[in-house]
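Team,

Forwarding the record for the chain on the shared tracking sheet. I've put the sequence and predicted structure together so nobody has to dig through attachments.
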Amino acid sequence: MKAGERPKLVRGLRQESRRFRLLVIVVGFFLVSLTFVFVSKPDAILFGLNGKLPVEQAPTSILIQQKVNEPSGESRKTSTDALRGDPEVVDDEADVKLKGTGGAGEKEGRVLSEPDPTSEMMEPTHNKEGNDHKSQQETLGGGGDGESKSTHNGKVREPIDNHCGCPNGNDEEREHAEQKHKVTLPTVSNYTIHDAAEDTENAKQEGMNNVQQGSKPLCDFSNFTANVCEMRGDVRIHPTATSVLFMEPEGSQRDEVWKIKPYPRKGDEFCLSHITEVTVKSSKVAPECTKYHDVPAVIFSLTGYTGNLFHDFTDVLVPLFTTASEFNGEVQFLITDMAFWWTIKYQTVLQKLSKYPVIDFSKDDQVHCFKHAIVGLHAYMEFTIDSTKAPHNYSMADFNRFMRGAYSLGRDSVTVLGEYPKIKPRLFIIKRHRTRMFLNLDEIISMAEELGFEVVIDEANVSSDISWFARLVNSVDVMMGVHGAGLTNCVFLPQNATLIQIVPWGGLDWISRTDFGNPAELMGLRYKQYSIDVDESSLTDQYPRDHEIFNNPISFHQRGFDFIRQTFMDKQNVKLDCKRFRPILLEALDNLNP
């Protein structure tokens, strides 16, 4: 080596060392920042780690129906038609995007059609001794007697790429979140849970066999929206085997095997493909109990489309209330596909419905024994309870009352004008930032204040503190906003408050009434629907006035929900004609008079 080359080499190595140290500092800073964000906002970060499906693929309703391309020229009727009226298409709630919900080979952007109501339905199989259990699809509701064979290979448990926001997620980060928030969840059980070794054989028989199932099938798959299994007697839940066993007495001829995914999106194959499948069956042989419970069990999933406010309520909270409220807190929840951030966000509701810590189905290795168990949740339609079918005839008015009680909200009814002359009626305008924005918000505020309202402005988003937002909504007399998930907060409004929904251009009136109008009225609220005119839509900046999108918007629905969402929802804002809209606010004021 030449004399001049050695110093150059040393200088080069020093420069490389400095670059390496700089790189380590940058990476370390990034990791520290990421950890801080994760710890401070687990509910926002964990959407992609614990069960949230990619929002761009999330359908918005199980009841997607359209009178288009029907072979007979007439739309099919379902069991929900009597309550809903005409077949309807539901909206994009919370800016989610519909992909095809059918099987392989289905095209995106398909014509909206009714999903197969028999999807995921399994018929109990009665076998002779020595035969294997077989499963068949059960055709329900006027479909004739034909059956098509379908093999189910157990639960869906494969790791899924976190780039799409699906399970599994980073276990290390999840454990960190669990440790951080453990103190906020209930930690003491008030009912008896004890090891099997503590019980005598007599105690087992007395505790587990005092109620029997009789001849009633273990599961009911006749509901259009959700499958539910319910058992009374000796029920053994074995999470490791993802099975629920109903112990048959000697001499019983029952031989049933059911496959159920406990999430109320029946017919939505994309959604259900990410839900753990649970096997429910009758049996004379089962593993020994390791934990005995003196309260009923309810098993449900938190994957699916949770993380979107509308779906949090319509897919989980409303069905969970319908299923579990009859137990007055004396019920044990077992959650498949656990989303820990979700249990933190809605712990107030969970603790109101159940006095006991939830059991993470995927991490539990005990054999839990119950005298009463329900697998799946009672659900009927979007954001609605069918009181004619619900246990104890629960209604949306009951749910509204329950939500106000859960969050200890002070107002059960709106302020009557004249009773408190110095208090102005409060109008809450839901503000949006990305799509369906009010382009003339200041003008709207000025008009409302001129009419005598005290105006409150805020945005409902995924990171909003539920307790704080619930108190805000409960403090107002009128709430208004453009069609979107933020309107779900109407569950916190006091009785006789008015909900005003602004419907974007595009033939979306029936969507809007289905998702929010009908539920609001069933909750005991006043409801006003305002459909904007062409001149109030920002679409006039994108298309010529003689375009078909203005002359016949319904014709574009045949292009499928992708087009509807992208065109009429994601790319449209609203500039209200205050002169045209003014009578709506005046009617809301009239509703506050005695």
